[in-house]
Design goal:
Layout: E1 12-16, E2 20-26, E3 35-46, E4 55-59, E5 74-82, E6 91-101, E7 108-117, E8 126-134, E9 139-148, E10 155-166, E11 171-182
Antiparallel strand pairs: 1-2, 2-3, 3-5, 3-11, 4-5, 5-6, 6-7, 7-8, 8-9, 9-10, 10-11
The structure holds 2-acetamido-2-deoxy-beta-D-glucopyranose (5 copies).
Amino acid sequence: MAALPINTKVVVLLILGTSMVVFTIPAGKADDGLKQTIMSVYFHDHSSGSPDSTVRAVVGFPGKLWNLTQFGTLFVSDDPVTEGPDPESAPVGRGQGIFVTTSLDGVNTHVSLSIVFTNEACNGSTIQVQGNSDQMKAVREYGVVSGTGKFRYASGYVTFENFSFNSSISYAVIRCNISIRHY
Ligand SMILES: *[C@@H]1O[C@H](CO)[C@@H](O)[C@H](O)[C@H]1NC(C)=O
Ligand SMILES: *[C@@H]1O[C@H](CO)[C@@H](O)[C@H](O)[C@H]1NC(C)=O
Ligand SMILES: *[C@@H]1O[C@H](CO)[C@@H](O)[C@H](O)[C@H]1NC(C)=O
Ligand SMILES: *[C@@H]1O[C@H](CO)[C@@H](O)[C@H](O)[C@H]1NC(C)=O
Ligand SMILES: *[C@@H]1O[C@H](CO)[C@@H](O)[C@H](O)[C@H]1NC(C)=O
C-alpha cells in the first residue's frame, strides 16, 4: 500500500477487490470524524424489454406507451455493478431501485436507487441514491441521502454517465462516480 500524494491528511487507501481504488480521507476536523470516500463503478444496464433485461417498465398510464419519455412510467432496475467497464470485471454489487418519469414533458426522471455491495470489502453495505435529473443529459447527478454498514450516515452525490451504449441490443455501460462523506 503506497502513500498517496493527495495531501498530508490521507490515512487510508482501501483496495476493494482486485483493482478498484477507493480513497477514504478525513473530511476535516470540523466535520466530527467524517471520512470522505470517492470511487468509480460501472453499471450494466440491459433495457431491451426481454425477460433477462435488468431494467424494465412495470407500470404506466393506461393507453400510453410505458417508455422513458412518457410521464408516469415506473421502471425497476437490478443492474450488475462492477469495478471496471468490462462486464467480466470484478463484481462490486447491484444497482437495485426504481425510477419514474416525473416531468410532464418526459425529460426528468426521479430515481430512488440502492447500490447494494456484495464484494468482500463492503459486503452487505449500501448507499442510497435519490434525486431528479434530466435523463437526456450526458452527466446525470443525484444526491446520496444515506447508507448502511460501512456507509452509515452517508451523504454526498453520484454522477452517472454512459460509458458505452450498444443500441442494437439496448445495452449501456454506465459509469457511476460516488463522492460521499460518512462515519
Ligand atoms: C413514448 O410514448 C409516448 C406515448 O405514450 C410517445 O408519444 C413517445 O413518442 C414515446 N417515446 C419514445 C422515445 O418512443
Ligand atoms: C457476503 O455475505 C453473504 C451473506 O452473509 C455471504 O454468503 C457471501 O459469501 C459474502 N460474500 C463475500 C464476497 O464475502
Ligand atoms: C452490439 O452487440 C451485438 C450483439 O452482442 C454485437 O454483435 C455488436 O458488435 C455490438 N455493437 C457494438 C457497436 O459494440
Ligand atoms: C445512455 O444509456 C441509456 C440506457 O441506460 C440509453 O437509454 C440512452 O439512450 C443512452 N444515452 C446515450 C447518449 O447514448
Ligand atoms: C468520473 O471519474 C473518472 C475517474 O475515475 C473521471 O475520469 C470522470 O471525468 C468522472 N466523471 C464525472 C462526470 O465527473
